[in-house]
Amino acid sequence: AQTPCCTLAAEAGSVEDLELFDVLKIGYKGIKCVESGGPEPGVGCAGRGVITSINFLEENGAYDDVDYVSYDVLGDVVCGGFAMPIRENKAQEIYIVMSGEM
Fold first, then answer.
1. What are the beta bridge partners of residue 25?
2. Which family does it belong to (predicted)?
């Protein structure tokens, strides 16, 4: 399992105290993987964790040599915070994938 970026930032003191190699894992065929994480359920805004992670990755060059970036985020929360990456122009296209599984 991968330790979430937000957990590592909390342990280090802040996201500024992290290095890219602390949160980035290289997977199958060189795919770069980062687990954003967020607050405990019912506490804080998970969207804030997502945008904090995205900003950290941008500032530390994680996107410099990639062709595609894919985010897998929860869509079943009442908080509108997941719209933050959209509002801050972090996406060119957005696809919503749903299933009937519960």
1. 33
2. Belongs to the NifH/BchL/ChlL family.
Alpha-carbon distances of 100 from 68, 74, 97, rounded to whole Å = 27, 14, 11
Distance CA 96, CA 24 (A): 25
Tell me the whole-structure pTM to 2 decimals. 0.75
Secondary structure (3-state) at 32: strand
Spell out a b/e string for 79-96, using b for 16 or more CB atoms within 10 Å of the CB, else e: eebbebbeeeeeeeeeee
In this prediction, the residues of the chain whose per-residue pLDDT falls under 70 are 73-85, 102
Count other Cβ atoms within 10 Å, centred on residue 37.
Answer: 20
As a whole number of angstroms, the distance between CA 54 and CA 22 comes to 15
Classify the C-alpha dihedral 7-12-13-19 as positive or negative: negative
